[in-house]
Prior knowledge:
The chain is an alpha+beta fold.
Amino acid sequence: MTNLIVLPLIIALTIGPIVSKQQVELPSTTLIVNITNPKEGDLVYDKVQIIGTVGNAEFDHYELHFALYPNPTNTWFPIILSGTIPVLDGVLGQWDTNGISNGEYIIQLSVFDSEENLIAKTRVNNISINSEQTFSPQTAIPTVTDTDTPNFSPTTTPVPNPIDNSQKSFLSKVLYEQQQENDHISTFGKGAAYSIFTFLTLGFYLQLRRFVRPHLRRLLRNIRNDLRRS
């Protein structure tokens, strides 16, 4: 009787761990990080939907930033600071370009683990912003019915969302200052060339003055002597 109870128990303890191991499914460790919209070379304006994919087993959150292209000072401005939901070919965030100076920019997608370690990143370069880009209004075309009565299709005018002018003015100022900083090398070169030219001109003038001054004094002395004699 004891053998009949012990034997099935031993078999169950042996097979149980094997079955449980076969049912465990490890999460995927393949990290997919990409931005499919906007693309390099695109012209954008107003509010831009950033489309892409991010997420895997180590994923904790992602961040979206933008910067002036080519960003030699490595200065970034936030779009999304904490996206915690994995995204598969969907909207990663919305980039509001209103109030940003026209020019070329970069978008960067960074992925972090739970310990704030950067595990992956990707960029889209050379995105142009043109805040003056607008659509030309379409004139409603009447459609003639059997009763010869024109039927004008209604047009809807989008209502702009309220914009924090103080924040946009500050951002525009920062971007302008960064553009000025990016041009400091060329400005320094022009200043150096001007200084060298001025120095050489001054040196030439001093050498010419040193050579001509004795002859000029002698000539003036002779003129005074001639005037006294006369």
